[in-house]
Amino acid sequence: MNDQDLLRYSRHILLDDIGIEGQEQILAAHVVIIGAGGLGSAAAPYLAAAGVQNITLIDHDKVDLTNLQRQIMHQHDSIGLAKVVSGKKMLEKLNPGLIVKAIEKKADELLLNELAPTATVVLDCSDNFSTRQLVNRVCVKHSTPLVSGSAIKFDGQITVLDSRQSNAPCYACLFPPEQSFDEIQCSTMGVFSPLVGIIGAMQVAQALQLIMGIGHTLIGRLLLWDARSTEVQVIQISKREGCSVCSTKS
Prior knowledge:
The chain is an alpha/beta fold. The chain has helices at about 5-10, 10-15, 20-30, 40-50, 85-95, 110-115, 130-140, 170-175, 185-190, 195-210; strands at about 30-35, 55-60, 100-105, 120-125, 145-150, 155-160, 220-225, 230-235. An eight-stranded mixed sheet has the order 3-2-1-4-5-6-7-8, sandwiched between helices.
């Protein structure tokens, strides 16, 4: 780190659990973010501000007026732009030293298999069940830590899935892909604006802890946040015997 870096990240460096060594780990990290909508809009700026130098944004959508109620990475003059392009511009203004790769396409298996081995951690900020299952499968395959979050209406949830630990559950242990779940979209059900900020920021906190190896992350636990009652519930989750994803990992 140079003198500018030492000054920029001084409030991190003052923390005993982080210090210079931890900040250098953050600077060296590569974080892949699936989705540049509500959760991604909250997560990406905090990762950039914290000093993650290599960020990959993946999203196939464009900025719409209805997004601006909660997707704070995008501004009014970004309407019509690809979300990853809008996000890249914002992040580079926030921290000019970043390398932000903007991939304007829907996350597919080929792309994820290319990126997952290079990632320090993946943040799943997507908004649909099939993408979450795909991201989970690829992260299990490559033993890449995954922070999964979701938010709808007034309810959010977050967990950490890390197949580097043999007893850690994966997303399919919690939500078996062979079962059917009703997809609930923000476009039809709505979402409380700050909820995506709360869950997205929590995803970043978990990701930074994974990068530095500090504290106790949500591996084996699912955190549920109810924004109406301001209540938090943490549920223990276990590796599921016969899971079609992680139990067959060689």
